[in-house]
Each structure stands twice: as structure tokens, then as C-alpha cells.
């Protein structure tokens, strides 16, 4: 004879087993599911990749510039040659002027090449996929100094892919475009950069200087004055604006800008030379000679300053005019 109590217990156990068989799959679905091949798949959401970053193109990818644009070369004075080598440094705030107007003596140190800079890891997969864009940016700077512009642009693009708001890298890319003679493209890059970061002083000055090189003097003057509004103590902005005004024979205005430079940098040879140029045009020969003499004393190696001094001392009635620094 079967005990009713045993039947009841068995019945309850069956009900419990059936209940658990329905509950367990539902619980598991909240954490992970299984694929058809039995592999467990996480339910974590997949994040969509960021919007594609605007890249700098290499010369063979860019529209062909006119033959005149590519082959034209400017004669650069020693002062301006220093200006050509002024690259943005993320770790150091640039002193005035950033583009090489004022030169100071520094301790000589052996500069490492780009390959030496990252020789320990730039051939590895970890370097290519580095999450630190500073590594690529610093290598781009060294490659630019070595005039390996295409390689430098690749490093700039990698840095921007990893950090689309890397403004120093964007500035360096525009500067490389200038070095390659791609001035129209560089103009657009500077303009876009200033739209994103309006208070980027060095980009503002470089943009104005490039407009001046392209013969767009009115636009260049506006941009130089914007730079001065950003930083009145920027002797480079005052100096470049003075050069622009001097070329337009606006000597009184140029003199005002150079006098400001003189207060900011009293021992700058280029400022004294350009003051001499203005005094020469105004027929103040004694003041002109004094300024050329001081410029030559401050920078004896500069042949332009010495030639200007000899020119004003010769008193020859010729058509040759002294040159700006």
C-alpha cells in the first residue's frame, strides 16, 4: 500500500524540477548567450568607430599645383632661415617670437635622427597601434627637420587618427605643406585650424605670413593685427606687420611697429636693421647708419646688415636700396 505522504512529496519534487527547468535559461540569457558552435558570446554593446578624421594628403594624392607655384623659390635671409625651422613643440611653450625673430645661444646638443628617436619600437606592431600620439608627433617633427616631408605627414596623420584634437599636429601638417610648396593647401589648413582653435597665436602669425607671401597684403594685415590682439607682446607679429607696411611704403606705421619690437627685444639685430631701412627711405642717413652699425655689431655674420652699412656710407647716388632683415 502506497503512503499518501510519499506521493505528495514526490509530486512536489517533480513540480520543483519543472519550475527550475524554465527559470534557468531565462537567468542565463541576462549574462551571456551561446553561438551555434557553442562559443559563449558577451552581451556587451559594440561601440561604433569615431567619425573619420580629416587627413593630410601626400603630394601624389593632392591636386597638381601649377608649375610656377612648385618651382618658384624665395631668397631667404639668414634671419628668415631661422624662422623656417621653428616647429611647434607640445611640451614647451614657445617664447617670443616663435618663428625665429629673436635668436638666443643655447647649449649645443647632438640632435638625434628620427630613426634614432624611436629605434627601439618603431618597427613593431605596438608602435603602429600606439595609443600615445605624442610619439608620432615627435617623430614627425624630427622628420620635418630632416626634410623628409612625406614620412613626416604619415606620422602627423597617425597622431591625428589617435587624437583628432591634436592642434600642434595640425599646425605641423600645415607647415609641412608650406615646405612642400603647397601654399594654397596650407592656407586652407591654417584657416580650418584657426576655426577650431581661434586663439592659436603661432598659427595666426603663420597664416598671415603665408597670405603675405601669396601677395594678399590686405588680408595678411588683418590677420597680423588679429595676432597682435591675441598677444600684444608678440614681437614676431609686430615685426612681420612692420615688414609688410614697409614694403607698401607706409613708413610711419612701420616705424611704430618696430619701436614696439625694440621695447620688447632691444638687442635684436633684425629690428635695428629694418629701422635703418626705414630711416634710409626717409632720408635720415645718420640715423640709418647708426641702426645698420648696431645690427652688424649684434650679428657680425649677417652679410645683409654689413652690406646695408656699406651702402649708406658710400654716398653713391645709385638705385640700390638697403634690404630688410
Explain what the structure shows.
The chain is mainly alpha-helical and 325 residues long. It has 3 domains: 50-63 and 77-100 and 110-193, Serine Threonine Protein Phosphatase 5, Tetratricopeptide repeat (Alpha Horseshoe), CATH 1.25.40; 198-249; 267-325, no CATH class. 59% of the residues lie in helices and 2% in strands. The protein has 16 helices and 2 strands. It has a two-stranded antiparallel sheet with strand order 1-2. Helix 10 runs antiparallel to helix 11 (217-230) and helix 14 (269-281) packs antiparallel against helix 15. Residues 23-50, 64-86, 89-109 and 112-123 have low confidence and may be disordered.
Features:
mainly alpha; 16 helices; 59% helix; Serine Threonine Protein Phosphatase 5, Tetratricopeptide repeat; single chain; 325 residues; 3 domains; two-stranded antiparallel ribbon; elongated
Offer a quick outline of the entry.
By secondary structure, the protein is mostly helical. The chain has helices at residues 4-29, 67-71, 78-84, 114-117, 125-128, 133-145, 149-162, 167-179, 183-196, 201-213, 217-230, 235-247, 251-264, 269-281, 285-298, 303-314; strands at residues 32-34, 40-42.
